[in-house]
Design goal:
With 348 residues, this protein is of the alpha/beta class. It has helices spanning 8-14, 18-24, 29-37, 47-57, 61-64, 79-84, 103-116, 147-157, 169-173, 176-186, 221-225, 249-275, 282-297, 306-309, 318-330; strands at 4-6, 65-67, 73-74, 87-88, 92-96, 120-124, 142-144, 163-168, 192-197, 215-218, 238-239. This is F-type H+-transporting ATPase subunit beta.
């Protein structure tokens, strides 16, 4: 199958207000978002949808669709991220959460890990008063106060240094992020991996909260309430890396099996909360119990939270995550106590 995907960066530059514009021409913002992240492969999209997007961007279909170019994944060694919604190098990655769901902790942890891998971390100060951002300042190499300053700092580093850059949604709404990305693209700087957060929490009510994204991490209120961190929803989070042509087939197979199990587990959990497990058929009980174990395994101690959690941070390679999840799916840990799977590294 030909390796094709949407030119997300072009869409981002040309149509900054894509949510409202998409609705005005009869496109569902959720469909556009899923096409950008790869949840819906471009090859399965309706022709009229692609033509409408090309018209909005003022480009040809050839410009809109990228062929033969692989999306590069950054292995974070965070289990739930690498398995369900891998980080795209050089792409724009959005965190969708309300305050208190742990998005800034995840951002701090990502920056901590990326710095170890040689990235320079940069934060564009948010508009308004958000003292909670101070909690991640230890993981920031460069703090800027304007788009112009962010551009100058990025230009000085050039392509010789990978940059992890974070900004609040207020800069997206003003169009400043699109302006920065276009300026960097025009001078040939493609080494910036962007993280977008929303400190107000309003982002969860939007269909296309940050415009086109390569990776979307949707946080889950239920996971956060039950202290299952990182509270990333494994069903609704997605990444353009997950397109079949970009991803190792073993990874794709295990990811799809795990997502199917967790989707059904979440449905059963609602029933169990009301009626208990006694009335579940044996096959459904097995699904529920494996879902409980997989959910527990996907929790992980973070390095940046060691002084608060009392647990040493853990890194788990993608290969170990895939093998561990496969064993849980196949029933190798059916008799293991759930608590022993919570907040650990790998099962090896």
């Amino acid at each position: 199958m030909e390796n094709i995907r949407l030119n997300v960066s072009l869409l981002r530059r040309r149509v900054p207000n894509l949510t409202s514009v998409a609705k005005s021409v009869g496109l569902r913002p959720a469909t556009v978002s899923n096409l950008c992240t790869g949840k819906i492969p471009v090859g399965r999209a309706e022709v009229r949808t692609l033509v409408a997007l090309a018209d909005l961007a003022g480009c040809s279909l050839d410009d809109l669709i990228i062929r033969g170019e692989k999306v590069e994944m950054i292995e974070t060694k965070i289990k739930v991220v690498d398995l369900f919604a891998p980080l795209t190098k050089g792409g724009t990655n959005g965190l969708v959460a309300r305050p208190g769901m742990g998005q800034l902790v995840l951002l701090a942890e990502l920056f901590h890990r990326l710095k170890k891998d040689g990235f320079t971390t940069m934060l564009l100060n948010s508009e308004g008063n958000h003292p909670e951002v101070n909690d991640i300042s230890n993981e920031i190499d460069i703090i800027t106060n304007s788009i112009e300053e962010s551009y100058e700092k990025s230009l000085a580093l050039g392509n010789s240094k990978d940059i992890a850059f974070a900004a609040d949604r207020s800069h997206v709404l003003s169009g400043k992020i699109q302006e920065l990305q276009e300026k960097l693209d025009n001078v040939g700087i493609h080494s910036v991996t962007t993280f977008l957060v929303d400190l107000s929490g309003e982002v969860v009510d939007e269909d296309l909260p940050f415009g086109p994204l390569e990776t979307l991490w949707q946080f889950d209120a239920d996971l956060a309430a039950r202290h299952k961190f990182p509270a990333i929803n494994p069903v609704y989070s997605t990444s353009s890396v997950l397109e079949g042509a970009h991803l190792d087939q073993q990874h794709l197979s295990i990811q799809q099996r795990a997502q199917k199990l967790l989707r059904r587990y979440r449905e059963l959990r609602s029933l169990v909360n009301v009626r208990g497990t006694d009335r579940l058929p044996e096959s459904e009980l097995l699904t529920f119990q494996r879902g409980v174990r997989l959910e527990a395994y996907l929790t992980q101690p973070f390095y940046v939270a060691e002084q608060f959690s009392g647990k040493k941070g853990e890194s788990v390679s993608l290969s170990d995550t895939l093998e561990d999840v496969r064993k849980i799916l196949d029933g190798s840990f059916d008799t293991v106590q759930v608590d022993s799977l919570s907040y650990i590294g790998s099962l090896r």
